[in-house]
Amino acid sequence: xxxxAKLKSTLxxxxxxxxxxxxxxxxxxxxxxxxxxRYYVVQNxxxxxxxxxxxxxxxxxxxxxxxxxxxxxxSDELINDPRCDMDHYTLTVKQGEVIGLTQEDFDNAELPxxxxxAFMAWHLIAIKGPWLASFTSSQMLERRNNPEIxxxxxxxxxxxxxxxxxxxxxxxxxxxxxxxxxADTEHSDMMDGVxxxxxxxxxxxxxxxxxxxxxxxxxxxxxxxxxxxxxxxxG
Length: 235
Description:
With 235 residues, this protein is mainly alpha-helical. It has one domain: Heme Oxygenase, Chain A. It has helices spanning 4-18, 22-28, 34-61, 64-79, 88-98, 103-107, 113-128, 131-143, 155-167, 175-198, 202-230.
């Protein structure tokens, strides 16, 4: 039988390494201005929509027990998260009000080319891959944001601290980032048992690792693409 503990440890190491890559560092070390912060929040809302697409494809192809887990997960995301008493897209839009964004800013937002390519790649894995690959690709992004796995905090926490330290807006006021800095702990953990139940062969093991590597490569491309655009935003 495959060593599931080793598999999970490897996935955790991959997620931690993301933060030291050039693309993540380009984004995380970029000086934050209000306009750059606004751009990030709007793009993050579009990212939230992409996640809903991909998890829906996961649910469609997955076994019944995994469908149930995805249903629970997406209930928070699409219907109502008791942590904030709203769905997560609405939460992101409401967060935007803190920094002067309006509903129209979200409605009229355009996805930059590199982000479009990343979203298409995530969709491709979600639709075309075996269900275990589709699941892993989506679960890795929750895992990569889990503060109990990631040294020094996940992406939501780190971006929230940039708003706090560089723009003087407390993490508590950035409600979507604040909720996700803790919610993805539960979302990541609730999915972890899937590997225990469904990785039964070396082929399964290899499928998970291959999908995880692909997802992390796409994730780097996406973050690097945001950094590329944001570097060019003045003010």
